Recover the amino acids of this structure.
């Protein structure tokens, strides 16, 4: 009887270990496809953008390139520029509708498509996304002073934006639906795995915020089903006394721009005087 029971226990343990290993293997090799959902565009095709814009292609090597789209309402002189790092879906076509939030207040908007998104070639990695952010900043510095540059991140782009603001001077850092880190998002369901070692993308936003000298504004909705409000709240202790954590009551992940509080907060940031 004891031997039968022992064999059953051993078999159960083996099954559990096999399932654990299979889930880990599948998760490791498929994580990029689960995290990023790019839609590429052929070089000869056009973005479906109605606003006035121009494109900049920046080669990295034979297989990889960065691609930026610059939005401007008119050819007049602007207050500054918003460096916009978008979310994990499709390409700039999806996010171009947000450009008027900034151009209507007298700013240019420069959006980056990550490698594999839109007309940017190659495969996105965390390191390449950081490098692209630095290259976009260098382009902006040819035209604008640091106190005219606002760094803006949405969803997965908040990690990129926080990184850039932690190593380069800017006027403001604005984060829409940010996260503490990618590992923190996955820990509730995959906490039994060594996520810090297995994840290709870490984006430790919390580490970067601690080094940001510019004013920080965070906007997050209480009903965000993708990046939980409680996860973003973990960033609060890292904020400076003058920084803002704006709670959009009832806001979800993709509709914050529809809320008057979001619009009012963003307009205040864009029109804030540098010496305030």
């Amino acid at each position: 009887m004891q031997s039968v029971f022992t064999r059953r226990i051993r078999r159960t343990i083996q099954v559990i270990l096999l399932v654990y290993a299979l889930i880990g293997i599948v998760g490791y090799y498929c994580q990029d496809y689960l995290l990023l959902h790019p839609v590429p565009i052929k070089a000869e095709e056009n973005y479906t953008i109605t606003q006035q814009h121009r494109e900049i292609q920046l080669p990295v090597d034979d297989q990889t390139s960065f691609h930026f789209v610059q939005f401007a309402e008119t050819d007049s002189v602007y207050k500054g520029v918003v460096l916009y790092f978008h979310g994990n879906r499709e390409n700039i076509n999806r996010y171009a509708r947000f450009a008027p939030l900034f151009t209507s207040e007298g700013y240019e908007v420069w959006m980056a498509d990550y490698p594999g998104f839109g007309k940017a070639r190659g495969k996105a990695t965390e390191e390449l996304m950081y490098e692209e952010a630095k290259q976009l900043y260098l382009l902006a510095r040819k035209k604008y002073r640091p106190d005219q540059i606002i760094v803006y991140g949405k969803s997965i782009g908040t990690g990129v934006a926080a990184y850039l603001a932690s190593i380069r001077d800017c006027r403001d850092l604005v984060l829409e639906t940010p996260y503490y880190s990618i590992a923190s998002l996955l820990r509730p369901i995959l906490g039994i795995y060594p996520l810090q070692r297995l994840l290709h993308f870490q984006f430790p936003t919390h580490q970067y915020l601690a080094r940001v000298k510019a004013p920080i504004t965070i906007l997050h909705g209480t009903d965000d089903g993708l990046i939980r409000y409680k996860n973003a709240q973990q960033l609060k202790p890292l904020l400076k006394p003058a920084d803002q954590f704006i709670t959009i009551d009832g806001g979800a992940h993709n509709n914050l721009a529809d809320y008057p509080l979001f619009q009012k907060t963003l307009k205040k940031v864009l029109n804030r005087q540098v010496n305030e």
Notes: The two ends are 79 Å apart (CA to CA).
